[in-house]
Write a structure and sequence with these properties.
Layout: H1 2-12, E1 30-35, H2 36-50, E2 54-58, H3 74-78, E3 83-85, H4 90-102, E4 106-110, H5 121-128, H6 131-134, E5 144-148, H7 164-167, E6 174-176, H8 181-193, E7 198-202, E8 210-214, E9 227-230, E10 235-239, H9 242-257, E11 261-265, E12 268-270, H10 274-284, E13 287-291, H11 299-311, E14 320-323, H12 333-339, H13 343-353
Parallel strand pairs: 2-3, 2-4, 4-5, 5-7, 6-7, 10-11, 10-13, 13-14
Antiparallel strand pairs: 1-8, 6-12, 9-11
């Protein structure tokens, strides 16, 4: 116990460096300010210009320019053979995409919301994820399933599911969940080029978010590499997609209290960059995970297990996690706010693991 208080006391007097800490992205020249949806579109357009085997398919992606205008203008640029409207038939067009991928094409399948991907879950789990393994490597399935994921306000139980913990349990799938426009572009380009099926999860409440996006030629962010968004040495906060933004707000509140939080954005849920996470834990000795998943068998559950397995002796406090509640999402606004991970809860969790 005395060790904990000694360390805390020392860190309160340490000169803060987090304000000047290096966000890895700041090292790049970011020249364009784009919305999240524009960054996704830029990634698809650049890849489709590079490789004629890539095509986009889904409900309303062509004539309507996408339910959230992510694919605006792409039908005019690439024509109806490469930007394809489908009926409301997720199981059908997901399976069509998998067959196309097995025969040399590289489809991008857009779900209007990932809640609708459950209609196609047999195709995604039993075919896309397993065919390469079951065929002894004779077939590759280079396909991207992308679209809005997670809660987006009062959409009730069937339209507010955070699906990453479901798809991340399936061997053969890669799962990506970017938190900002720059990552959205770089990671989507990497996903399109991957020879494995990738579930690419976007948040519809972030589609209008603006941010600097690198316009480096052929800008690609490798899958499986986390981003250290903020450096600190008092506590590690991990958050992906929308939860990343809660993590950053909590870090700012902690800084006002005299503590430096390190914020890690995993970017890719599977494969997970455990090296980056463990390196941070060994420095801060404390961890809070913010995760929009329902808590049972969640992303934070997996992270917690793997941290204690590899770095138990470095922990000075039990890991805490802030998740959605263990219920279906409600409809009422006040209940929905209670259901979602809250900044105040994450802030108190950080103070608890620091014993302050």
């Amino acid at each position: 116990m005395s060790r904990r208080f000694t360390r805390t006391s020392t860190k309160r007097t340490t000169t803060r460096t987090s304000a000047a800490s290096a966000n890895q992205n700041q090292e790049r020249v970011a020249m364009a300010v784009l919305q999240f949806r524009e960054a996704l579109r830029a990634a698809m357009v650049e890849e489709m210009e590079r490789d004629e085997n890539i095509f986009l398919m889904g409900e309303e992606v062509a004539e309507y320019n996408g339910a959230y205008k992510v694919s605006e203008g792409m039908l005019d640029q690439f024509g109806p053979k490469r930007v394809i409207d489908t009926p409301i038939s997720e199981n059908g067009f997901a399976g069509l995409g998998i067959g196309a991928a097995m025969n040399g094409l590289r489809p991008i399948i857009e779900f209007m919301t990932f809640n609708f991907s459950f209609v196609a879950i047999d195709q995604i789990i039993n075919n896309a994820a397993k065919i390469r393994y079951m065929s002894g490597g004779q077939f590759r399935v280079p396909i991207v399933f992308r679209g809005p994921n997670g809660a987006a306000g009062q959409l009730a139980a069937t339209h507010n599911t955070s699906t990453e913990s479901i798809y991340a349990t399936i061997p053969g799938l890669k799962v990506v969940a970017p938190s900002n426009p720059d990552d959205a572009k770089g990671l989507l380009k990497a996903a399109i080029r991957d020879d494995n099926p990738v579930v690419f999860l976007e948040s519809e409440v972030m589609f209008g978010m603006k941010g600097e996006v690198s316009d480096e030629e052929d800008y690609v962010i490798p899958l499986g590499k986390a981003r250290i968004a903020r450096e600190g040495d008092d506590v590690t906060i991990i958050g992906h997609s929308k939860s990343y933004h809660i993590a950053m707000k909590v870090a700012e509140r902690l800084e006002a209290d005299g503590y430096n939080a390190e914020v890690i954005d995993p970017r890719t849920i599977r494969p997970l960059d455990m090296d980056a996470i463990l390196t941070s834990i060994k420095k801060t000795n404390r961890c809070v995970i913010i995760d929009e998943s329902n808590p049972y068998a969640s992303i934070s559950s997996e992270m917690t297990y793997r941290i204690q397995e590899a770095a138990f002796d470095y922990l000075d406090a039990p890991i805490k996690r802030i998740t959605a509640k263990d219920t279906p999402a409600p409809y009422a606004k006040n209940l929905m706010e209670y259901y979602m991970p809250q900044e105040d809860d994450a802030y108190e969790a950080c103070k608890a693991v620091m014993y302050v």
